[in-house]
Structure formats: C-alpha cells, structure tokens
Write a structure and sequence with these properties.
156 residues, mainly alpha
C-alpha cells in the first residue's frame, strides 16, 4: 500500500486503510454492476428513456453512498472510544458540531450571497440545513455507537 497514490488519502492506521480499500473495491464492483444493469435496461426497454447525465450519475451516487454507509456501519472511525465517559464526550462533540453547522451555514450564506438571496430562499436554505445537520448527526452518532460497541467487545 505504501507504493500507491492511495496512501496519500488513506488514514495512517493500517487496519482502517485496509478496510477502506475493501469498501472502495466493493463500491467499484457495485458501481459497475449498476452501470451494466442500467446500460442493458436502456438497450432492452425503450420505456427506459433516461438522460445520459442521469445514466452516468446514478452509479457514481450509488458508489459514494455505498462506501459512506459501509464506513459508518463498520465502526472503525472512533478507535479511541473505550469507556462510557469517552462515549459521552464524543456524543457531546457530535451534537455541538451538528448544531454549529445548523447555525453557521445560514450565517455564511447571508455573508456570501447577501440578505436578499437568503430572504428569497429562506425556507429552501432552512430545509437543506436542517436535513443536512440531522443526517450529519445521525451518521456520526451511528458510527460512534458502532465503534464503541466494537471497542467494548474487543476489551471483553
């Protein structure tokens, strides 16, 4: 792995790096399978009138979603959370990070695009920010909970 350009973007923890490479490999196979399915489906059935941008985008979105979900569910992100106290501390950090995002994003939106743009799209921005903040919290919390359970199991 040291000879690959991937080593620049992978974590230094050898176990984490190996698992991520597995996730990426699985994701590529999943992406190729979905691309093949879509290509065959569009050739066989004329009812599948899918624009080429969407046809190219679906496998990429599936790849990213698959790798992201596998990483979250694997429980390898929080290797240092071994005790209940560390778990609670990380949970507080995740809550603060999510709330900070929900508060700061609209402020930065106003700062960069102006009050006029924000007032015209305030419900859209609020919806996107709330959904993103909640999804960010859920992803990190699930990862934390899985990591804690896995670490606790290793200690027992």
């Amino acid at each position: 792995m040291k000879e690959s350009w991937l080593s620049c973007i992978l974590p230094h923890d050898e176990y984490k790096a190996q698992r991520i490479v597995y996730f990426l490999g699985e994701g590529v196979l999943f992406m190729l399978g979905s691309l093949g399915f879509l290509l065959i489906g569009t050739q066989v059935s004329s009812a599948w009138n899918i624009p080429i941008q969407l046809l190219a985008g679906i496998p990429i979105i599936l790849f990213v979603a698959y790798v992201f979900i596998r990483y979250i569910v694997s429980g390898i992100e929080y290797t240092n959370v071994m005790s209940e106290r560390a778990f609670e501390k990380e949970k507080k950090r995740i809550v603060v990070k999510s709330i900070s995002f929900i508060v700061l994003f609209p402020l930065l939106y106003v700062l960069f695009l102006g009050w006029q743009a924000f007032s015209e799209k305030s419900f859209d921005v609020a919806g996107i920010v709330l959904i993103s903040g909640v999804l960010m919290f859920l992803a990190e919390y699930i990862s934390l909970k899985r990591s804690y359970a896995k670490n606790k199991e290793l200690l027992d």
